[in-house]
């Protein structure tokens, strides 16, 4: 197991520091007739007007959030729908700017989300290679780990699907392949968004085991999930966000107890796990590869 503490001082090594973080989305075109050239010109001429007056709405998704994550920790991010979990994760990954405050990271954070799509028109096999290269693996490393990645994903359990284009995969299969590619590498900071809720139970078990392995190798794992059991099985610490604010930060059992009281039962009972749909992902859902 790699070091999780400073050899000299014996102190825990921080990997992510969020210091008073605010994240604000700006949504254009929320006023009527805002798309025309005249409207654009008017906006330029009326610069003094507020963003709301010019048809730009602000969504304050994360409010004054601070925490320190350490090596070897697996941290669950929980909260009801729209509480800011995915937004915070994207900001830690460096994909969203912060409005106020700072996020410091040690090493390269990698975001693995169910929305991160690979190239639909390419085969699973090509996507494994491209995904590996995008994460900074060499061609040699990818070749060495190729079989493991495919086995882990379970894509070929029902036939030779890995040589078919990804558009022929169900959303669950595609999500499993994405997770398998990202999990092939040891990450300094791995950010997982709902990936465990996507696969079937046996895939979830494999994913949980892999997350535990990544922790042992001294990385830090963040897991966003509505599945309290996955959080309980995988994480030792939980951050609870509500309306963008950090409501609680502590040991998994303590935080989940309060959260379950707040939601009136298990979150899983409130929001069922999405079932893998037997169709390919929609056109245009192409966003960056897991890096
Ligand atoms: N691209 C965007 N543009 C504008 N507002 C956004 C955007 N993405 C998210 N939001 C808003 O930011 C807030 C937080 O959303 P976020 O997706 O981070 O929540 P979440 O806790 O991950 O939700 P869920 O559990 O439903 O996935 C919500 O009010 C949402 O409407």
TrEMBL record:
<feature type="domain" description="ABC transporter">
    <location>
        <begin position="45"/>
        <end position="268"/>
    </location>
</feature>
<keyword id="KW-0547">Nucleotide-binding</keyword>
<keyword id="KW-0813">Transport</keyword>
<dbReference type="InterPro" id="IPR017871">
    <property type="entry name" value="ABC_transporter-like_CS"/>
</dbReference>
<dbReference type="GO" id="GO:0016887">
    <property type="term" value="F:ATP hydrolysis activity"/>
</dbReference>
<dbReference type="InterPro" id="IPR050683">
    <property type="entry name" value="Bact_Polysacc_Export_ATP-bd"/>
</dbReference>
<dbReference type="GO" id="GO:0140359">
    <property type="term" value="F:ABC-type transporter activity"/>
</dbReference>
<dbReference type="InterPro" id="IPR027417">
    <property type="entry name" value="P-loop_NTPase"/>
</dbReference>
<feature type="compositionally biased region" description="Basic and acidic residues">
    <location>
        <begin position="267"/>
        <end position="284"/>
    </location>
</feature>
<protein>
    <submittedName>
        <fullName>Teichoic acid transport system ATP-binding protein</fullName>
    </submittedName>
</protein>
<dbReference type="InterPro" id="IPR003593">
    <property type="entry name" value="AAA+_ATPase"/>
</dbReference>
<comment type="similarity">
    <text>Belongs to the ABC transporter superfamily.</text>
</comment>
<feature type="region of interest" description="Disordered">
    <location>
        <begin position="261"/>
        <end position="291"/>
    </location>
</feature>
<keyword id="KW-0067">ATP-binding</keyword>
<dbReference type="GO" id="GO:0005524">
    <property type="term" value="F:ATP binding"/>
</dbReference>
<dbReference type="GO" id="GO:0016020">
    <property type="term" value="C:membrane"/>
</dbReference>
<dbReference type="InterPro" id="IPR015860">
    <property type="entry name" value="ABC_transpr_TagH-like"/>
</dbReference>
<dbReference type="InterPro" id="IPR003439">
    <property type="entry name" value="ABC_transporter-like_ATP-bd"/>
</dbReference>
<dbReference type="Pfam" id="PF00005">
    <property type="entry name" value="ABC_tran"/>
</dbReference>
């Amino acid at each position: 197991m790699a070091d999780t503490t400073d050899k000299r001082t014996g102190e825990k090594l921080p990997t992510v520091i969020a210091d008073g973080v605010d994240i604000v989305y700006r949504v254009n075109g929320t006023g009527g007739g805002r798309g025309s050239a005249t409207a654009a010109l008017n906006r330029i001429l009326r610069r003094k007007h507020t963003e709301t007056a010019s048809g730009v709405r602000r969504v304050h998704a994360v409010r004054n959030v601070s925490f320190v994550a350490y090596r070897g920790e697996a941290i669950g991010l929980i909260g009801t729908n729209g509480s800011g979990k995915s937004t915070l994760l994207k900001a830690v990954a460096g994909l969203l700017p912060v409005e106020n405050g700072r996020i410091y990271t040690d090493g390269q954070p990698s975001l693995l989300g169910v929305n991160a799509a690979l190239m639909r028109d390419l085969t699973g096999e090509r996507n494994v290679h491209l995904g590996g290269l995008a994460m900074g693996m060499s061609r040699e490393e990818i070749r060495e780990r190729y079989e493991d990645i495919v086995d882990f994903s379970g894509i070929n359990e029902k036939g030779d699907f890995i040589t078919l284009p990804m558009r022929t995969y169900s959303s669950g299969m595609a999500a499993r392949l994405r997770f398998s590619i990202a999990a092939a590498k040891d990450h300094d900071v791995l950010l997982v968004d709902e990936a465990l809720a996507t696969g079937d139970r046996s895939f979830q078990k494999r994913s949980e085991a892999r997350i535990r392995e990544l922790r042992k190798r001294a990385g830090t794992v963040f897991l966003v999930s509505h599945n309290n059991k996955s959080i309980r099985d995988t994480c030792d610490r939980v951050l609870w966000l509500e309306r963008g604010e950090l409501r609680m930060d502590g040991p998994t059992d303590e935080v989940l107890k309060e959260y379950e009281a707040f939601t009136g039962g298990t979150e899983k009972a409130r929001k069922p796990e999405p079932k893998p749909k037997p169709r390919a992902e929609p056109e245009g859902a192409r966003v960056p590869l897991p890096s």
